[in-house]
Structure formats: structure tokens, C-alpha cells
């Protein structure tokens, strides 16, 4: 019997159907690998050239001029046809090259296609050219750990998500010693060029490497990568040179598919508010795109909250001859009240459920939280500089850190200075939940940023919302609306007069959705209302159908929280990102082949149809400015935030009341569909870019 079972299992495991359905590579992956991204027409030319475009102007920082003298005068460079090249220029273009590539920072869908674009172009012009991938991000560059990129490797990862081919890392090349190690690795490999694929900090690194490598004749090109969408480049006159980084569209679509599923669940089960936090620490681009993709009921845009002004408080202060500085910028308390009002409005139309989207870094836009972050950053940096010790190693536990802050508040340290942390700060800080206080005091990331992903933002906000909803419920202001037609059918089935009882129970007996009077907050007060209107006597029981109606109007606020980040950045790229990233890779090669360095590869007119796309190089040094990092001023690329005057935000602002659907309207949820890479229904651009192109 055992032998027979063994043979049956062996037969099952060796059956072709078993092999097919359990194989690592499925049909979808095979199709993805064989998909050929579109090429900008220019890249079909035999040769290209670069044309300086001094008409695109930037106000560059004087510190950038001092730190990056050899690349600060770079112009925007447009890749054009090279049919007028001389013979020597053509031979130089066709020469064999060694090119290094490195991923830096978190993954973003499309990264493998950047490498594919570089590899395909390098091999197209000279089959002896070689591409090397540094392993585990910048560490591979510092430690000389690399692999040679081959055709089979490129084909295995073409159109596939992640940075799995060579992995990634977050090490910063931020010292002279590290730069020299990186230079030695590149010289030993006889590299002609290095391509850094990363975000704003990684492209900042690329600029410093370009400066240091120039004397060794090694070109350095950056490629804009971040799902947050906060790398956007405009000239001084406002012309868009880079509308978005690669990976943004895919992440937004991946998040939106999941959020869309929750809108379906919410409108089916009708008992949960789904709170969806999406990645985006400094900017709310992903949140805004997800709003357009899903039409969620409530969407918070951090930049709008930061821009909030309470005109009532300003007017009140003016009457008293004062200025209320706290009226500028929203507070946590006021934000929770705003959310409550929206929840109450939806409940009044019978919808005690919904979907809310908030950006990961929403707290950074809240007035008092921003003040805490600035003060704590200053205190920690000041301690590190003054004592030549690390604050987080000295004060390990939360209590240790809090005690140090209390000593500051009591004036027990730095007595000769005005204390940056005072007793009012201490009181306000102690009112925050303990896990949030701990979050504010955690060690900053390698870039000096507050790590909002480690803080349960949605829980902090929703706890305050629940607390206020309980107050509104006690006051009788938070009720679930009862559909009038439903109420009448229930009453008629019980042989009761609906109109008579409606006047006693509801404050709006003639509306589509009936709201129980604010004075009725319990079964006891319900019965008293019926007694007062002579509908029942004190010895009668409240009719069962009336009790059921009341219970349906009594709200039970339930939430489910979700965080969307790592799932989206690990998604296979959309059709848009497949094409975009591949052309970025080709752009990087053509910049290198034409002798450019210190440039960021970009596609101009990205917000337009594909046939309008133009490959360009943007001078990284001119994008940089001084910014405080860990208490020190450093040259970095400025992050782009949501423009409240943009077409996209203005359209969102005008439509969100419809998406809230709080006026007895049907919900307007949108189904974005799954991420694909081909097909007539697939989007060719992010919705926000489409709107901004109008």
C-alpha cells in the first residue's frame, strides 16, 4: 500500500500539469519579459548629439558653486540627432565602454528597465561594451562588489519589478574617504561612466561623485527614482523639465487597486471606515493620485493642511486688538474635528462607513507637531555637537530622553541660554500618546529625516476622532440617517401611523433620510418622547419596530487601518513605467556617449503623449540648495511638494464633495483595475499628469 501511494505521489509530482502550475515562472511573467517597451523615435537614429539649452535657467545656490565648481555651469542638454557628427566624433561615439550602474535607496518599479535601456544601447553601438552592476547599492561601489550584466540577466528581469537583479542599499557616499573608495573601484574596473539610479539624496551623491570623478575622466549620470513622486524639476520660469520620477505611477496604481477593493468592501459590509495610509513622507503626490484613481470619500492632502488658516480666530483676535499666530496652520485637534464632521455628514445620509486616504507624513504638516520636530531636531543636534556624543546612545530609553527634556524645561542645562524647550512644550508633549512621544524621539534616518513610517499616524488621528465622536454621540449630534421609504414600510407593516411617530422621533420628518432628534440619545429618552406626544402611555412598552429603528440610527464607529508602501514599491511596473524607465536608461547612455557628466537623465514632456517625449539631461548642481539635516546645513536637491495651484489639485478640490457623497448621493467609487503592461484599457500616464498637461 505504501509503495502504491509513493508511486502515485511520484506520478503526481512529475506530471506536466503539476510542473506547469508550480513553476517559478508563470505565463504572466513570460509575457512581461517578452514585452518590448516603446523607444523614443530619436533613439532609432544611428547617432545622437547633445545640444546645450541655456534658455532653461535656474537660480543656483552660491554654496553649490563653491562645492561643485566643475559641474555648476552645466546647461540643460537636449539629445538631438547626430547625423552631422564628424568621423572622429562618430568613432568616439562607437567606442567600447565600461559602464557601472548602482541602485540607491528603496526599490521603485521600473529600475530593471533602466538597466535594460543602458545595456541595450551600449551593446547596440559596440558589442564589446560592458555593463557592471554594483551589489547591495552604494556598499557594492565602496567594497568593489559587482557582477557583469549579461543578456540573459537583462532578459530575466526586463519589465519585472523590484531591484532584485543587483539589490539596493541606503549607504550615503558622504565623506572624502568614501568618495576615494568609490573612485578606486571605478578606476580598477576601468569604467568610463557610472549611473546612479536613486532619489533626491542619491542624485545629490551623483553630483558630488561627478565633481570628484571629473579629473579621472569618469562620467557620472543620475536617474530620478522614487515612488513618492517628489522629484520634479521646473525652471525659474516654471517650465516642467521632469514631471515625475519613475515608479510613481506603478506604486499609485498598486495602492489604488487595494484601496478600490476596500471601497467595494465598505459599500458591501456597510459597517467600517477603512483608513488607508500611503507612502509619502514630505509630499502628498501619491495620496492625490490615489484619490483620482479611487474617488475615496475622504482624502487628506498634507500641503493643504499646512496652508490652513482659521479666519474666524483671526477675526476674533483682531476685534481684541491682538494677533492670533496659532490661527495659521492646522492643529491635531482641529484636524480631528474636521474628520468627525465629514463622518457625521455621511452617517446622516445613512452611510456610517467609508474610505479615507492619508499620506504617511501627514503629521509633519500639523502645526504643533512640526514645532516639536524642529525643536527636537535642534536639541538633539545641539547635544551631539556640544558633547561630541550621540544623543540616542547616551539616552537609550524613552524615559531617559524625557528626563533630559524635563531638565531643559526646568532650566537645569544651558543656564546661560534661553531654553528652546520650555515648560509649555513639556506639558503639551506629555499629553501625546506614549508611543507617539517615542516616535518623535526615535533616531532619525540616514538623511536626518523623521521616520514617520515607524509612527502609527492613522491610529493617533483616529483615536482623537473616536474620542470626539463619542462626545457628539452623547450630545445627540452623531446619528445614522434612516431612509424615509424604509421607515414607512416598517411602520406600515406594524400597523402604525408613520407620519404621527415621525414628528415625535425625527427632526426632519419630510426628508429622504430621517435623523433622530438630538434629545433622543437612549431607549429611555426615546420612550419619553413618545409619551410626551401622547403616542404611548407610561405603562406601555415602546413598539418593537420603533426600537429597531432607533438602534439602526445609533452609530457604532468601527475602523480598519491599512498601510500601503512596500507592496506598491515592489509591484511589477505599469505600461507607463516600463516605457519611461527604459527610455531613461537609453537617455543615460546617450548622455554618456556624448561626453556629459553631472547630469540627471530625464524625459521632457512626460505629461504629454509618448510621441512628444524628449530625452534631456538636467544639471544636478543647479537643482541643489542648502537644507538642514541633523542640525547641519547640507547641499541637497529640494523635494517637490503638491502645488495647491496646480490643475490636478484644483480639480480634486472641486470634486471631493461629490466623492464624499454625503448629500444622499450614491457613492462615486472608481475601479482602477490591476497593474498591467499592455492592453487597450491600460493608462498611458498618471491622472495627475494628464490634468496638469491641460
Helical content stands at: 40-55%
Task: Profile the largest sheet.
Answer: 9 strands, mixed
Task: Say how many strands there are.
Answer: 19
Distance between the termini: 74 Å
Strand order of the largest sheet: 1-2-17-16-7-6-3-4-5
Low confidence ranges:
none
Gist?
With 694 residues, this protein is of the alpha/beta class. The strands form 5 sheets. A 9-stranded mixed β-sheet has the order 1-2-17-16-7-6-3-4-5, with helices on both faces. Strands 11-12-10-15 form a 4-stranded parallel β-sheet, with helices on both faces.
Give the topology:
Blueprint: H1 2-14, H2 16-22, H3 27-34, E1 48-53, H4 62-67, E2 76-81, H5 87-93, E3 98-103, H6 111-125, E4 130-134, H7 138-143, E5 146-149, H8 151-157, H9 176-188, E6 193-198, H10 200-213, E7 219-224, E8 233-234, E9 240-242, H11 248-269, E10 273-278, H12 285-294, E11 298-299, H13 302-306, H14 311-319, H15 332-348, E12 354-359, H16 367-387, H17 391-394, H18 398-409, H19 423-430, H20 434-440, H21 457-474, E13 482-483, H22 484-493, H23 498-505, E14 513-514, H24 523-532, H25 544-553, E15 559-564, H26 566-569, H27 575-593, E16 599-604, E17 614-619, E18 624-629, E19 632-637, H28 647-660, H29 687-692
Parallel strand pairs: 3-4, 3-6, 6-7, 7-16, 10-12, 10-15, 11-12
Antiparallel strand pairs: 1-2, 2-17, 4-5, 8-9, 13-14, 16-17, 18-19
Keywords:
13% strand; alpha/beta; 694 residues; four-stranded parallel sheet; 29 helices; Rossmann fold; 19 strands
Amino acid at each position: 500500500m505504501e509503495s502504491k501511494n509513493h508511486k502515485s505521489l511520484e506520478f503526481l509530482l512529475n506530471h506536466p500539469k503539476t510542473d506547469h502550475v508550480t513553476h517559478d515562472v508563470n505565463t504572466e511573467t513570460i509575457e512581461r519579459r517578452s514585452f518590448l517597451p516603446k523607444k523614443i523615435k530619436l533613439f532609432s537614429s544611428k547617432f545622437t548629439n547633445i545640444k546645450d539649452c541655456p534658455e532653461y535657467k535656474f537660480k543656483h545656490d552660491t554654496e553649490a558653486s563653491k562645492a561643485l565648481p566643475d559641474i555648476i555651469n552645466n546647461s540643460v542638454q537636449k539629445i538631438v540627432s547626430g547625423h552631422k557628427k564628424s568621423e572622429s566624433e562618430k568613432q568616439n561615439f562607437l567606442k567600447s565602454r565600461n559602464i557601472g550602474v548602482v541602485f540607491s535607496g528603496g526599490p521603485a518599479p521600473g529600475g530593471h528597465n533602466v538597466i535594460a535601456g543602458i545595456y541595450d544601447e551600449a551593446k547596440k553601438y559596440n558589442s564589446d561594451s560592458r555593463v557592471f552592476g554594483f551589489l547591495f547599492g552604494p556598499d557594492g561601489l565602496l567594497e568593489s562588489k559587482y557582477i557583469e550584466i549579461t543578456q540573459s540577466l537583462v532578459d530575466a528581469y526586463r519589465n519585472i519589478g523590484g531591484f532584485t537583479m543587483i539589490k539596493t542599499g541606503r549607504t550615503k557616499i558622504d565623506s572624502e574617504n568614501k568618495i576615494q573608495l568609490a573612485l578606486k573601484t571605478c578606476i580598477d574596473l576601468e569604467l568610463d561612466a557610472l549611473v546612479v539610479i536613486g532619489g533626491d539624496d542619491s542624485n545629490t551623491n551623483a553630483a558630488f561623485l561627478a565633481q570628484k570623478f571629473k579629473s579621472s575622466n569618469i562620467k557620472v549620470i543620475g536617474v530620478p527614482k522614487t515612488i513618492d513622486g517628489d522629484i520634479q524639476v521646473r525652471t525659474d520660469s516654471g517650465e516642467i523639465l521632469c514631471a515625475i520620477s519613475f515608479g510613481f505611477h506603478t506604486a499609485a496604481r498598486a495602492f489604488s487597486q487595494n484601496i478600490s477593493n476596500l471601497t467595494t468592501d465598505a459599500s458591501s459590509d456597510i459597517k467600517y471606515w477603512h483608513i488607508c495610509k500611503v507612502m509619502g513622507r514630505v509630499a502628498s503626490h501619491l495620496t492625490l493620485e490615489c484619490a483620482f484613481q479611487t474617488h475615496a470619500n475622504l482624502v487628506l492632502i498634507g500641503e493643504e493642511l499646512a496652508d490652513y488658516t482659521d479666519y474666524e480666530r483671526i477675526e476674533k483676535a483682531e476685534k481684541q486688538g491682538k494677533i492670533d499666530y496659532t490661527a495659521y496652520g492646522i492643529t491635531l485637534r482641529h484636524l480631528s474635528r474636521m474628520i468627525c464632521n465629514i463622518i457625521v455628514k455621511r452617517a446622516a445620509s445613512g452611510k456610517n462607513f467609508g474610505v479615507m486616504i492619508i499620506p504617511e507624513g501627514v503629521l509633519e504638516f500639523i502645526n504643533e507637531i512640526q514645532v516639536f520636530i524642529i525643536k527636537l531636531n535642534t536639541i538633539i543636534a545641539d547635544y551631539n555637537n556640544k558633547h561630541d556624543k550621540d544623543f540616542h546612545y547616551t539616552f537609550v530609553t524613552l524615559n531617559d530622553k524625557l528626563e533630559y527634556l524635563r531638565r531643559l524645561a526646568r532650566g537645569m542645562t544651558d543656564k546661560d541660554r534661553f531654553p528652546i524647550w520650555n515648560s509649555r512644550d513639556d506639558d503639551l508633549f506629555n499629553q501625546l500618546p506614549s508611543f507617539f512621544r517615542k516616535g518623535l524621539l526615535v533616531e532619525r534616518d540616514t538623511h536626518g529625516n523623521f521616520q514617520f513610517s515607524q509612527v502609527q499616524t492613522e491610529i493617533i488621528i483616529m483615536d482623537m476622532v473616536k474620542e470626539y465622536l463619542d462626545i457628539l454621540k452623547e450630545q445627540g449630534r452623531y446619528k445614522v440617517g434612516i431612509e424615509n421609504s424604509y421607515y414607512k414600510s416598517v411602520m406600515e407593516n406594524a400597523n402604525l401611523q408613520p407620519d404621527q411617530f415621525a414628528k415625535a422621533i425625527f427632526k426632519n420628518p419630510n426628508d429622504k433620510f430621517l435623523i433622530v432628534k438630538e434629545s433622543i440619545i437612549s431607549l429611555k429618552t426615546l420612550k419619553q418622547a413618545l409619551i410626551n406626544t401622547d403616542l404611548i402611555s407610561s405603562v406601555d412598552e415602546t413598539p418593537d419596530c420603533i426600537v429597531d429603528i432607533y438602534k439602526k440610527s445609533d452609530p457604532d464607529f468601527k475602523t480598519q487601518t491599512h498601510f500601503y508602501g512596500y507592496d506598491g514599491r515592489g509591484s511589477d511596473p505599469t505600461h507607463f513605467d516600463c516605457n519611461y524607465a527604459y527610455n531613461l536608461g537609453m537617455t543615460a547612455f546617450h548622455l554618456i556617449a556624448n561626453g556629459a557628466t553631472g547630469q540627471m537623465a530625464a524625459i521632457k514632456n512626460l505629461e504629454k503623449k509618448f510621441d512628444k517625449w524628449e530625452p534631456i539631461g538636467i544639471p544636478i548642481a543647479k537643482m541643489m540648495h542648502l537644507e538642514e539635516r541633523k542640525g547641519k546645513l547640507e547641499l541637497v536637491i529640494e523635494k517637490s511638494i503638491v502645488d495647491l495651484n496646480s490643475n490636478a489639485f484644483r480639480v480634486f478640490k472641486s470634486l471631493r464633495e461629490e466623492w464624499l457623497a454625503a448629500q444622499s448621493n450614491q457613492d462615486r467609487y472608481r475601479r482602477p483595475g490591476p497593474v498591467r503592461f499592455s492592453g487597450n484599457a491600460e493608462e498611458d500616464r498618471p491622472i495627475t499628469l494628464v490634468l496638469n498637461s491641460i
